[in-house]
Amino acid sequence: MNLFAPRNTWYPLTWSRNVTRSLSRHRILGMDLVVYRSEGGGVVALDDACPHRLAPLSMGKLKGDAIECGYHGMTFGADGRCVRIPGQPMIPPNARVSSYPLREKMGLVWIWPGDPALADPSRIYDLPQYGQNDWHAAEGDALRIETNYLNLADNLCDPAHVSFVHLSTLGNSASEDIPVEHTFSEDGVLVWRWIRNAPPIPLFAKYGNFAGNVDRWHYYDYIAPCIAVIDFGSADAGKIADPIDRDRGLRIFACHFITPVDDHICIDHWLHVRNFALDDGDVDQRLHADFRIAFNEDKEILERIEKVAQARPNAKTIRLAIDAAPQRMRRIVERMVAAESETRALA
């Protein structure tokens, strides 16, 4: 396993709602972790292998804030240090497992798998509209996709596919020939386009009660290596003269937080934040049903592509104009990985 991913960054590990006083096992960057909530309410993640015989600690018992291995009873505190060896009063200094910095934000547990000294919580992504009075956030699912996480990131830097993959929910033919625009930064890419004076897409036709054509937008904001937030919406044609006034229309942020599991599997933790139907739980469920259709369409095509790529390891592909943002996305990740490798080499 040689997952091409930086370590010194925050990754989503799981939904906060899933972490309890029971031991659970999670896999990220090819590492198996045991995760639980402490008596004080904090979240703990340790390497899920006892250093004695490599028995998974997730098969053990939680005793206070420590884990007792289910094989020979070695017990490890929340910091990973062994605090008890049955029948042996002396505890060797190497009797420990790795522990990882964790924080909770936007309904998710975030993990820093790299150098703990560099784990700055202020670097965890924050959507300004999340938690604001005029916006409503609704947590979605954790969609397992059998493809490398960068392939999903490609998809989430690419508004062009919506016109063909998501015709029942997020797209229609009016956008097929509208070119995409993009800007690049040190840590991400922004790709967007406006479709003016066109029929609303199926999703907004449901919730917008539009009498005629609309102006609609897609802004795909990718932050390396694992975050993609899609700002999309619609307004009556001609209502929004300045793109900065998108709040005047129906607006949704579809947030995708990607967990790289291993070389060939990733998990898409998705939620949405919207500026309409703020207190309507029924709209939550209806929108989630629409999103599940759309995101499973992405899952299906990405997994089929993965199978073809594995069957044709020497296949040559071509690049189109719409590939500028995905290619830049991959170069940003390459720079992050290279910078970490250089730092390790100098240490």
Automatic annotation (TrEMBL):
Residues 10-111 form the Rieske domain. Keywords: 2Fe-2S, Dioxygenase, Iron, Iron-sulfur, Metal-binding, Oxidoreductase. Its EC number is 1.14.13.82. CDD domains: RHO_alpha_C_DMO-like. InterPro entries: Cholesterol_7-desaturase, Rieske_2Fe-2S, Rieske_2Fe-2S_sf, VanA_C_cat. GO terms for molecular function: 2 iron, 2 sulfur cluster binding; dioxygenase activity; metal ion binding; vanillate monooxygenase activity. This is Aromatic ring-hydroxylating dioxygenase subunit alpha. The lineage of its organism: Bacteria, Pseudomonadati, Pseudomonadota, Alphaproteobacteria, Hyphomicrobiales.
